[in-house]
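seq/struct pair 1
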Amino acid sequence: MSFEQNLNEWYQNYLGRAPDKKGFDGYLAQLRGGRNIYEVAHEIQHSDEGRMYQWQKQYDTQRNYDIANTRSINLQKDKDKLERDILDYQGKIGGYETRIKNFEKDIDDYKYKEQQLRGQYDTALQDIQNWTTKAGEYQRAASDWENQFTQKSAEYEAARDEAAMYRNEAVGRQLAGLRSGATSGGSNAGRMATGTLASGKSGYQVADDKAVEIEKNIKAESGLLARKGPVVERIAARRSEQSNAPSKSATPASQSGSYYASRFGR
């Protein structure tokens, strides 16, 4: 290495700068004049500027070290805080995950209950539709039975009225036959009797028994006819007369025309 290179390196390493012309030329002349290179290097390194540079360099190095160390400490603190935060966040995340799982379970339960309620609702709706259909059927059946009842009631009323009419007509005919059952002009036969009063036979008793039988039929078939009306009153009056009249074993022929008239009040 040449003297020029040595001087440039010493200035740069020991003084931290490029050599100035005056100093560079002075030291170059000394080296060329035979001065020991180590002495020149030692002189430059331990000069006032060299010592100041070394102190500043050490100071800067220490300062940089302190800064780096402080930064490292701060970084470590930040790292520790970050790790604590991470652990904290992980714990919170774990709690949130647990809550999320619970929410998911609740959601599944709600879905299951919703399906059950939907099934019950569909079943109830189907039941309502079925019962509505049945109610319509029952209502139609009730209307049909009501119509049948009304029809049968009308038929019953008509039949009852018709029966009453025929019963009244039959009773009238029977009573008219009884009233006209006496013999006329002393003949040997009458309409309702087997013999005449003039013959001395008991034919009038047959007619009397027939009247009693008709009266019983009237009472059995119609309570109204058994208690009301001129016919019933006439029969009741004749029965009262029969109970008060004296008993006779025979009636003269001359009275045969007036017997039924006296009995039924013709």
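seq/struct pair 2
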Amino acid sequence: MADPGGRPPVTGAEEELLAEHRRIRDLTRQIETVSDLRELLRLLQDFRALLVPHFLAEEGTDGFYEIIRRMSPRQLALADALEREHFAFLVEIDRVAERARACLAGPVAAVLAEARMLAHRVTEHEAREDNLLLDTMYVDLGHGD
């Protein structure tokens, strides 16, 4: 039976595919707004883990693309183009993740190391000032008696 909009009813397999596409959209939104590289790496890992089996299922012998090819030959060129994009997306996810790791290991790590060294030097400086003040007050001025 068709829904009120005139579309045929959605089957369990179609609903599962649509649910996966919703999960993919949710992750893409998170990736679009993330500003922390470590969080980006986690999201990319989750994204890849979701996409690999999703793409494999779509590309399978009874998958989405084969069904489309059988049901609608006029969509053959579009289905082929979309299917080819799968591998490119996975390669790009890996490339972006590698660049994020390189930043964390390189420029970001270097900046964080510089900040830690600066903080350590300021801490030591303040400790020497404390010692100077205490030494002056207790030894030179005799306020410790």
